[in-house]
Design goal:
This protein is an alpha/beta fold. The strands form two sheets. It has a four-stranded mixed sheet, with helices on one face. A hairpin with a 5-residue loop joins strand 7 and strand 8.
């Protein structure tokens, strides 16, 4: 059996506002967009009202095409804790991402020390997008002890 992970998908209330976070703050790139549709498989799998049109955009990193998607659902309420999912992203410059997030008014959680399963050390920081979706960024700063 073969499995290939295609992408994560977050529901968002406003795709343009979401792109300000995912593109301008995190640095993802728009791979493609689909126009708003009245009929979408997303209505079925996310349990959405079929009266709400669905927007869609796929996002890429420079080395990973279409690794994330945003599905726009008008009227979606902001998520409240407990959060049930996240995406975790390695970033080269966490300080720059944090600064852009704070400048954009996004909630940035206190930084924690990351200790990986194999003993590497680093930094990890949680950030909420405008809809309350959790993104955790990290950077490894020290190799595993020998």
């Amino acid at each position: 059996m073969s499995i290939r992970f295609q992408r994560a998908n977050f529901l968002v209330s406003d795709i343009e506002a979401a792109l300000r976070f995912y593109v301008d703050v995190l640095g993802l790139e728009v791979a493609f967009r689909k126009p708003h549709r009245d009929e979408s498989y997303s209505h079925v799998v996310f349990g959405l009202d079929r009266a709400s049109p669905i927007g869609f955009v796929a996002l890429s990193t420079p080395g990973q095409p279409r690794v994330m998607a945003l599905t726009e659902v008008a009227g979606l309420e902001k998520l409240s804790p407990p959060r049930r999912s996240t995406i975790v992203l390695h970033v080269d410059d966490p300080d720059a991402v944090i600064a852009r997030a704070r400048a954009g008014g996004y909630e940035v959680f206190p930084e924690e020390e990351l200790i990986t399963h194999d003993g590497r050390r680093g930094r990890e920081i949680g950030i909420l997008d405008a809809d309350g979706n959790l993104v955790v960024i990290y950077k490894i700063t020290a190799p595993a002890p020998e």
